[in-house]
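ingest -> fold -> write
write: protein_1
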Amino acid sequence: MGQVFSTTKPESTPLTTSGKRKASFDSSQTLKKACKDATFESATPEVIITEQDVGILAFVNPNLKGFSSIMKYRAEDFLVNEVNLDGKIIRLTSLDPPVIPERQKFFLSDAEFDAKIAGIISPEFAKELRNVLNNPNDITVSARAKKADYSNFNHKNVEKASRIDFYNAIECNLDAPLMTECLEGVLIARWKNPDDTAHTKVGVVKEKPRKINFDITGGEYVSFYVQKSGVDTMGAVNIMANIGGPRFLPKQFSYAGTKDARAVTVQEMTLFKCDPRYLYDVRNELAERQIYIGNFSFANKGLTLGDLSGNHFTIVLSAAQCVLKGTMSLILKKKDNVWLYILRDVNGASEEDIHESLQSLESRGFINYFGMQRFGTSSICTHEIGRALISLKFAEAADLVLMPRDGDRADFAAARNHWAETKDIKSTLDKLPRQAHTERKLLSSYLRFDNQHEKAFNSLPQHMLSLYYHAYQSYIWNCAVSERAKIYGCDKPVVGDLVLVDGPEKSNNNSNNNNKKYGNAGRRDHSSRKVPKVLTEEDLDNYTIWDVVYPMPGSRSKYPANAIGDFYKQLLEKDNINIKNAQQHFKKLMGDYRPMMVKPKNVGWKFIRYDNPETKLFNTDYDRITSVPEPVSVPNGKYLGLAVELTLGTSQYATMALREVMRSDTSAKAQARNVHT
């Protein structure tokens, strides 16, 4: 087959997008201090990926003054409350035990009850049961009988559904503590006797909670709210399942979205056909792990990924420094998709400057860029790997994933260097840390497919490939919109722009399957009947800048009919992607459309004062339930703060709204260099 992997160790990291700057460190070790909870130190100089590297270049109002600050310094600095599809903010408001609905009893006459049992089982069965009921004090037969011969009455060949109907009839229509059992297909009913154990079914059981009848709860799913910190959503699910023992498994939990570990998050979860009382019983053990549960109810439908309209955020930006005047820090909240920023220690910045910035954000909005989190934190951005894959350069993509890179922690760097020197798959797998999921998966695929690059990549899990594909789509979109802002500005539509209009619904099973498999960066529902329209001169008065959309590249994407369309073509051709042959490169992605601009709603702001820099300026949901006093503004406080609120829609990045006002790089590495002094 020939040499598949190059055995020449590169002198440096494979070429990536230009513009990265290596961080310089002084004796204060600021990055190490900001990341003091990191377990491993970097083995090579850190490389900072900037907004410019991923196409984030323009501002709506380039004349605004800005400031910098620290984001997400602690988990408590980042609060997330899920917003459901109805627009309700998921807030933990109750720690009360779950209320289990009891079946309403409707006592029947003897004749009515006998007729009901005859219809469920048989007339003969009903007669035998009536004989038992007419002799409530006679337990001698069942008391003396062997367990296999319990036969006050029995009826063989009873289907499970009939047994369930029978049990329900006993519970709802009979005011008597009748014992019921099904042994080896034989349904048995009798009166309780002294030899009965707690495991024998009875109309009134004191030893354990009565089994839940989901027919009367309103649904087979238990809904509850979870506040957690220090663990991601899947980790919280595993903890609940482990502490709860065999009564519920991780696969029985479902949720609308995954939440980060480095945050205090509140979200709804559903649990299929489980007794919530068992979950409630382990609440104290969960609380020891910073997991709090409450707001129990029943639902007829479980949650699936995507069943949310947004998130409500509270973000603390601390030790902020005004670019022109003084220092600030900032908190961001979001409720009902409403974000609330609280800026700490506003020192030396004029209120007029702040008013001007926020008024501009309110009236002119911000560019709807894909934020830095879309592109990862490594010196090799995810969109660069996506570029290689979409360009069908699988060997290059393998190098980008596996070869040494700047900023790696020591154990990763050692494994990558070993790979660069030996190209030995098995020994490299032995050296890679367990956390190197992608690298380990890829090398294992090379073993499986005898070093065939394309087959190895295509065998990776869908979510891994989607990460790279979507990052490249997002990068191209960011670059195109920056060029649009540069050439045409951000105030109005121009000839050749795209807007979405109603169109005929079309289906293509093969394309739909591909799109469902890999998704798109913009996540627009492709079952919708919206189609792109190219604006003409006559259309301009009918649309505003808020209607303008720009495409993520894909096999079915339509491009603007102006200079930006040409820019898309040039940008893709630079990456060896021909728009006319898009199906070859984007066969797994149909493409999508994303609004160019975002205009926040309900924008408002106010100033607040406090004395202690460590003052808590907000409470978590659990704090409020447990009556922790709400923070209040201190009259004549030493420090001046500013609270700002605004409403954002889904799929919009709060960091990009912050960027328009702050004028500072929002990348994680750049933020890590800003520390308290």
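write: protein_2
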Amino acid sequence: MSKREREIEERKKSLIQLQNVDLKANCIIQDDVFTIENERESSPLLTRLGRNAVYYGSGITPTPRKKMGKRRKASTDSILDGDERSKDWWTKYFASVETMIEEEKEAKRERADFLQTPHTSTDERFFRDDKNSPQVHGSKRHGPMQSPRSKLSPTFSKKSEIPVSALTKVYPHELEAVPEYEEFKEWLHSFELYRGKKTGDDTEDENRVVGAFKGAIKVYKWPLPKGIDDHTIMGLDPNHGFFQGVPSNDPIHVLVRVYIVKATDLHPMDLNGKADPYIALHCGSKKISDKENYVSKQLNPVFGKCFEIEATFPQDSMLTVQVLDWDLVGSDDLIGETKIDLENRFYSRHRATCGLPMKYEEQGYNRWRDAMKPTQILAKLCKDGKLDPPIYEPGRVKVGRTVFNIPMDDAELFSDPDTIEEQMALVVLHRWQEVPRVGTRLVTEHVETRPLYNPNKPGIEQGRLEMWVEMFPMDMPLPGPPMDISPRKPKSYEMRVIIWNTDDVVLEDDAFFTGEKMSDIYVKGWLKGPEDCQSTDIHYRSLTGEGNFNWRFIYPFDYLEAEERIVISRKESMFSWDETECKIPARFELQVWDADHFSADDFLGAITLDLNRFPRGAKSSKLCTLEMLRNDGTVPMVNIFKQKRVKGWWPFHIKRDTEEMELTGKVEAEIHLLTREEADKVPAGLGRSEPDPLDKPNRPDASFMWFLNPLKSIRYIIWHNYRWTVLKATLVLMVALMLLMLVYSVPGYTIKRLLGA
């Protein structure tokens, strides 16, 4: 067997092992995804007719199955179309962050497994898992399992809804720290130039730096010894020199696009423990400041900016990205900065000029951003490596002596017949390291996380900055417009909540006259916080826990769909210069209370509804139980941003000292979500007010305040409970009066009778 054949066999073995590792990781991740998707799934409230017969809300008349199927299909199509239109770069980003988190969890699990089996080799463990693990040979191997909830609800969709091919790689560190990219120093290394002699003091020696020498030094015997098995950086014959293919140092003009996504964990700079950060760029003599768009009072600001700057290599090789703190009075303070060697990236054989996405698309949030198409990039790499041009055949691409077999049945990658050749070239670029001699791993589409440092506080991290850089030579056709990563504008909504009734509310008070158990029930709720609280009127003297309200709450709010957060802008104090934006979870709080006249009201129970995932309401009070609040995936969930309107019964509860939940009541409510435009067209009033007033509730006559209605008190409190006693007392009193009158009158009538008067 020749040496080349041995290399090919070793490469095949390593690829098989990598595929097995990926396969195992995918199975575990899919298992976790299925568990998350399976959350809030079946329900004890489901009918025996099957899941297709389940209706949302209450008061809905069942429709024929055929008509309902058509309606469901139409609504599903409209929802999917709306989701597709709402996708943007941030949708892709958040889905990619979730993937990064899952990868970190998987890496921790693999490290734990490795530590548990220290005497077993990695290869043996992977092959053993492949043979014996049911996860690999089971159904999970062929793709993610479908959640049963997707069959139940046409509005169900995964949180990301982004195909794997559209995801971007999110690195929790800088790009230079990726081992495969060799710090982009395969060509050039930087050597600092000092003035004077070394003192031994690090701070003093840093002040002696006057510049840097960038170059490469190799020492080798010439002529080369026979049988040397080495090659140059470009994979060329070393007998013609190790510096073959070194790029020219002639000045080259480059368009640099710097995308700044956000910063995290910034060091506070103000007395209130916050900062007002903004971005500034320095590249050679060119400076860009975004001071006008500072983010007020944030330590985790979202910038969403793209800055364009023209650089000339080798003069403008270092890019400095600074995060500064805006001050109303005085000069702005530096929070931290990071430096990127653009020249090393530009000339790197890993092609760090523009990351390669997984899929070639010409439009949309995942559109191609490079100035060269994949086929052009592949042709250039072959030319630089002195290889024959690539040959495209159905299902395969030949590069030199290497043949790449590409499965064309992947509908996710090869969905557009007009871009099949470009997609095939892109697949080869992602596998470029498999090409003998000249192959290396190319930089993929990414977002890197760079630490920020302050020169006055060396070695202490001042925060982290998520960003990426793209570079395009000015002597070539320029790429299209930059990707829009501006922060999403929150969408304005209005949520209308009608509290219809309550039932089985615990009775806390004793009646003043009768000692019966009763409660003066009212319900209150808020969305943004207690300052946003609204309350119903009071249903007095509820003897059964039933309350009737017909009361409407109205909550206007701004919502970010990508982050599932409500955006609130407010001044932190009366002395604040501008408003501070904060994001809170989209949760609706409902509480039931017992009103007291001379003491604080008594809290009876509460329920928190996550507007993105809350249990579907029961159709009747009898079906409303604490089982609806289970988090084991057995209860169907509702997303009000897709369902728009829902009605039903939900349980109030409290937690005892044992952390067990106790049912303290039930509420019948209707939640209706409208956009601001829809709400303006169909206005509604608070409570039972105009416009669109609600009817007064049909409450029992016994529901009143006793000290404001004394006649009703006599009627409903005394007469209702003591009427037989009153009747008997009245009868006895009348008899006594008659006897008294008789006793009083008999002597007079007797004397008159005797005297004959």
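write: annotation protein_2
Residues 3-162 form one domain.
The chain has five domains: 3-162, 165-187+247-355+447-485, 371-442, 491-681, 706-757.
pipeline exit 0
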